[in-house]
Amino acid sequence: MTRVVVTGGSGKLGRAVVRDLDEHGYDVVLLDRVPSPDKPERVQFVRTDLGDYGQVLGAFTGVDDRYDHVDAVVHLAAIPAPGQVPDVALITNNVTASINVFHAARAARIKNLVWASSETLLGIPMSEHHPPYLPVDEEFAVRPKSSYSLGKAVEEEMARHFTHWDPELKMIGLRFSNVMDETDYPAFPWDASPEAKTFNLWSYIDSRDGAQAVRKAVEAELTGFEAFVIASPDTVMDTPTIELVERYVPDIERRADIDGVSSLLSSEKARELLGYAPEHTWRNHRS
């Protein structure tokens, strides 16, 4: 049984990831400052301050009466969006936690590390900073527009260098779209106020599909650094996507057909290299 440490496992996406890994037979250790309200019984919780490198290293090398080694790390802990704390406090918190996780994993000789990067690296708000083409993918250089996304850019750059130092290391950054779960879906669709969702071109990711992407990344037989866009295949709208494009971003190059309510964030790379196959949509939760 593979033991996976999940940092930030008490958050929205973290809880889905912990459940998914547990249901698929992994030995899961949840690291967070607070316990999860719905932690599976088998999952172990260790209260950990990721801003303290010594605590992170200790959690990755073994905790008495709990476990004696770690096989893989899923790093989700972060202040999840700009505007929640002052800008420098946000980037300091998030990047410090990530460098502590990356270094501690290296010191503990853990070769399998997956972490939450972000769609914000694609240039959000896209309503103001249009991407070079549609659908959006991983092929153009990152375009951070906030302290939050700048921190994610720093993390991805660090990961590139960590994998250069160790050719056996796998570090996968998952650029998650806006994470949603069943409690969010009563507000869908957003057709009455499409402007509210232009910032990420009406995209989202169901937390359960985000969890599947994490598990597939943990299982992937890859080495080196890779980044993947992780989004649901549909939008948050009932309006056909091509109508939204023509109304709000008509002048952007289109590199593929835009059919139905398809997402403008492409997860094709994740499908090809990870086997990512999303199964959930807000449309199954209509009242």
Automatic annotation (TrEMBL):
Pfam families in the record: Epimerase (PF01370)
Domain NAD-dependent epimerase/dehydratase residues, every copy: 4-180
Signal peptide coordinates: none
Keyword line: NAD, Oxidoreductase
The keyword NAD appears for this protein: yes
SUPFAM superfamilies membership: NAD(P)-binding Rossmann-fold domains
Statement: the UniProt record of this protein carries the keyword ATP-binding: no
Annotated family: Belongs to the NAD(P)-dependent epimerase/dehydratase family.
Protein's UniProt name: NAD(P)-dependent oxidoreductase
